[in-house]
Amino acid sequence: MKWTNDAHRHLGVLPAYPFYGGPPVAPAIGSRATIGELLADLDREGTERALVIPNYGVPDPAIAFSFNELCVEAAGKDDRISAALWVSPRAEDADRTEDALKLAGEDGVRALKLSFLLGGRASDPACRPQLDKIFATAREHDLVVHVHTSPGAASDIDEVGKLVEAYADDVKLHLVHFGGGMSGHIKLVGGRFFDWIAAGKQVYTDLSWAIGFTPRWLVEEISRRGLGHDRVLFASDEPWGDHEGELAKLAAAAGDGELADLVFRGTFDVLYGPKKGK
């Protein structure tokens, strides 16, 4: 396999937390605290370039926000790294999000990371002012909005789809985890993803955490419909994902032709490579 680009991985170490009523645990055992450790991982994996996102997962948004400057520093230290800034749709996080958005023009920043797992909903009127501000900043600085789509929380694909309808005409929107589960996969491959593309929506996705049949089906539909080949990216979601497993899964589906070149390298360069003129 050639060197690849990774459109979704995290930097920062989270504290142990008593998830689901159990004892405090730290399940993301591959978490990295330093830029040097991250670069060593990229070398070991054969990852040429990566979009690096503040680590999150414990229900304390302040921790995720605290890693923004580390990700910006990483992007400034090595041009293999592009940074995403953690932002929040919640009114309670408005001040922190305001501070994060001040970094949007920094060299190497290519995305704003948005998740509803720590609260809020795409359709919640209380979130709309923050969402409008986040997407306006992305539009101003030509950034991608990177959105988590896992099911079982307020961020199921039906909710996240409202962001596509509202904002993706003129802002690039990356749907992480391709819907995040069975219902999202079937809704998207069954038509919704392709309908959005045909309607001119700037929607992209990755297949990290995707259920087994999904990559093969998506590739088949891309071929059959003749669109979507330039909207899919490889992403490991390390340390929450598994780089080796995700790579094998998507490589088996994409093959070794033009589609693979776009999935593993080319589309990343369009979304997350250096800004034009820099």
Automatic annotation (TrEMBL):
What CDD domains does the record tag this protein with? metallo-dependent_hydrolases (cd01292)
The record places domain Amidohydrolase-related at: 60-255
Q: Which domain of life is it from?
A: Bacteria
The cross-references to InterPro entries, in alphabetical order and at most eight, read: Amidohydro-rel, Metal_Hydrolase
GO-annotated molecular function? hydrolase activity
One of its Pfam families is Amidohydro_2
Output this protein's name.
Amidohydrolase family protein
Write down the species.
Answer: Amycolatopsis mongoliensis
**Biological classification of the source:** Bacteria, Bacillati, Actinomycetota, Actinomycetes, Pseudonocardiales
